[in-house]
Amino acid sequence: MNKIEHIGIAVKDLDASCQLYEKLLGTAAYKQESVVSEGVNTAFFRTGEHKIELLAATVAASPIASFIEKRGEGIHHIAFDVDNIYAEMKRLRNEGFVLLNEEPKFGADNKLICFVHPKGTNGVLIELCQEIKK
């Protein structure tokens, strides 16, 4: 794992949360997009070398809606940048971690993603991210 790629924050209202984070960080979101496969709309902010991803559910069955229902708004996951998501997934499986995805899937911000089950990481949902090369 190379670095923290971003911190994901679950929110109820993306527009209101974008306004809040624009004031907090002193900058506008540089990207907003829908990830239909995850049932979310996202907004990304940069602060220095770091990124914050706001995630709002678009359907009641989405993982974000379930998270907010159980825990309320707040930090949802920490994402790590990796060079080779397939190799990293294999390494983590070999180390005994449980992955929530059998194969990487397309995520926001031009990334292949995979999640590591939080039961094996002290309750923290970990996301692996590999930039899709064009």
From TrEMBL:
InterPro entries: Glyas_Bleomycin-R_OHBP_Dase, MeMalonyl-CoA_epimerase, MMCE/EMCE_epimerase, VOC_core. The keyword Zinc does not apply. PROSITE patterns: VOC. It comes from the Bacteria. Keywords: Metal-binding. GO terms for biological process: L-methylmalonyl-CoA metabolic process. GO terms for molecular function: metal ion binding; methylmalonyl-CoA epimerase activity. Residues 3-131 form the VOC domain. CDD domains: MMCE. Belongs to the methylmalonyl-CoA epimerase family. PANTHER family: METHYLMALONYL-COA EPIMERASE, METHYLMALONYL-COA EPIMERASE, MITOCHONDRIAL. This is Methylmalonyl-CoA epimerase. It comes from Pedobacter cryoconitis.
